[in-house]
Write a structure and sequence with these properties.
Strand content: 15-25%
Order of helices and strands: EEEEHEEEHHEHEHHH
Number of strands: 9
Mean pLDDT: 82
Length: 256
């Protein structure tokens, strides 16, 4: 049997994306992903999670098992035969009493984008990317500099420069600071048609654009909701709070 289980998700527009997983001898899990093609460029290694568990998560999101495949170090996918895996190759049924595995702390965030939108939307995406980066540059002038610059900034600028279709993937580490994550969330929240942005943790948990439910990720970056509120409001991720004191100061007292 080949080392990897390959899954496919078919989109309503007829396109599709693939995701593959395998277990390693050191107990880690390796996953690969990307648009359906001869190779899967996205890759990550994860610890503290079972292969069966993350396969279940993908199946609940509409991914269907395609078959067992080989994948080389460059991500090239090789089918051992033209037939799909048989029943014996499918993931085993869950045990009656599955072992409890604690959720490991976030070690890195993994992101992908598949931009197959029509040209006018790709142009809008490029404009929005540059606008958000400009906003973030202004905000970052008043914040501590991250320990390590995020290489994704230039990736996004280059990819959207000519308004062509493209795919990208990468990581965000704690040393990169919280701003790259907020940038991706702001883009994801725009919901450009034909632009799929996914952000996940080590355990393949997809992240929401609702910052209030992502306390674990905020802690990963060493911050909290109150500390990043002003930035999140500027990026459109949070609604501005109503300052009642300021509002009432502009109102004449009316007593009856």
């Amino acid at each position: 049997m080949a080392a990897w289980n390959l899954y496919r998700h078919r989109n309503s527009d007829g396109s599709s994306k693939d995701w593959a997983v395998r277990s390693n001898s050191d107990g880690s899990i390796t996953t690969r992903w990307g648009k359906t093609a001869d190779s899967l460029p996205g890759v990550s290694n994860r610890y503290g999670v079972k292969q069966l568990d993350i396969e279940r998560q993908k199946q609940t999101k509409g991914y269907v098992l395609v078959g067992a495949v080989d994948i080389d170090v460059n991500g090239k996918v090789v089918f051992p035969s033209k037939t799909s895996v048989n029943t014996s190759q499918k993931p085993p049924e869950p045990d009656a009493t599955p072992e409890f595995v604690p959720t490991p702390p976030v070690e890195a965030l993994y992101w992908t984008i598949d931009c197959h939108a029509k040209q006018s939307i790709r142009v809008e995406l490029g404009i929005e990317v540059r606008r958000l980066i400009g906003v973030i540059q202004t905000v970052s002038d008043h914040q501590p500099k991250p320990k390590q610059d995020w290489d994704g900034w230039q990736q996004w600028i280059d990819a959207t420069l000519n308004a062509e279709t493209f795919e990208l993937s990468g990581q965000i580490k704690s040393v990169n600071g919280v701003l790259p994550w907020l940038f991706l969330l702001a883009l994801k929240a725009k919901s450009f048609k034909g632009v799929e942005i996914d952000i996940a943790t080590e355990t393949a948990r997809d992240l929401s654009v609702d910052l209030k439910v992502e306390q674990e990720v905020l802690a990963f970056f060493g911050t909290d909701l109150d500390s990043i509120r002003d930035t999140a409001e500027v990026l459109g991720l949070l609604k501005p709070r109503l300052n009642l004191a300021a509002a009432m100061s502009d109102t004449d007292d009316c007593w009856f």
